TrEMBL record:
Keywords: Signal. PANTHER family: GANGLIOSIDE GM2 ACTIVATOR, GM2 GANGLIOSIDE ACTIVATOR PROTEIN. One of its GO terms (cellular component) is cytoplasmic side of plasma membrane. It comes from the Eukaryota. This is MD-2-related lipid-recognition domain-containing protein. Transmembrane segments: none annotated. The keyword Signal applies. GO terms for biological process: ganglioside catabolic process. Residues 1-22 form the signal peptide. Pfam families: E1_DerP2_DerF2. GO terms for molecular function: enzyme activator activity; lipid transporter activity. InterPro entries: GM2-AP, GM2-AP_sf, ML_dom. Residues 23-190 form the MD-2-related lipid-recognition domain.
Length: 195
């Protein structure tokens, strides 16, 4: 399964499950082997369950097959920023081997929602035709996703206590073998638990 679009979509979707400010995206470093140029997410307040519209632009600059993803999720509160720990692979977590992440999400179905999220991501990837995204190792390629709708599941009761609020998410993509930072980006969003 393609790691390039899946890492970005996984980051955005996993974080909206654990995240009335407008969505913000910024880059925070890396050697640009994976160049995430832009991410858009609407609506500005994400309601779960609900539907989002996702946009993405990026490039794979060189072949790779060994990427790890680290996510730091911080909730903004009146007491200051509070780091959300990794709870059942949702929150501030590390995900080794992005080539197999969607398979793992489906197989383990973290808190009863990751299998549905993985299925949504697979449908999104199947709708995008890009030669470098067919299988590991991934080849240099450009990817642009414009205004694709995704359905998000409801919040499990286990995560309900942290559902509503403003969140800042930092995503780091690193080469598993060398440890070098390939890409880093940050997003800010507001999450609201639906009825």
């Amino acid at each position: 399964m393609p790691a390039f679009p899946s890492f970005c979509v996984c980051a955005a979707l996993l974080l909206t499950i654990s995240s009335a400010n407008a969505f913000k995206f910024s880059r925070c470093g890396g050697n640009d082997d994976i160049n995430v140029q832009a991410i858009s997410l609407e609506p500005s307040v994400i309601t779960l369950p609900g539907r989002i519209t996702l946009g993405f632009a990026g490039k794979i600059q060189r072949p790779f097959d060994n990427i790890d993803m680290k996510i730091e999720l911080v909730r903004k509160t009146w007491l200051g920023n509070v780091r959300i720990p990794c709870i059942f692979n949702i929150g501030s977590c590390s995900y080794p081997d992005l080539c197999n992440l969607l398979d793992r999400m489906e197989r383990e179905d973290w808190v009863g929602i990751s299998a549905r999220i993985a299925a949504e991501i697979r449908q999104l990837i199947a709708s995008v035709d890009s030669e470098g995204l067919q299988a590991c190792p991934y080849q240099p390629a450009e990817l642009e996703i414009a205004d694709r709708s995704l359905d998000l599941p409801g919040i499990p009761s286990l995560l309900a206590a942290i559902a509503n609020g403003d969140y800042k998410i930092r995503v780091e993509l690193s080469n598993s073998r060398s440890g070098s930072l390939m890409s880093c980006f940050e997003m800010e969003m507001t999450l609201k638990k639906g009825d």
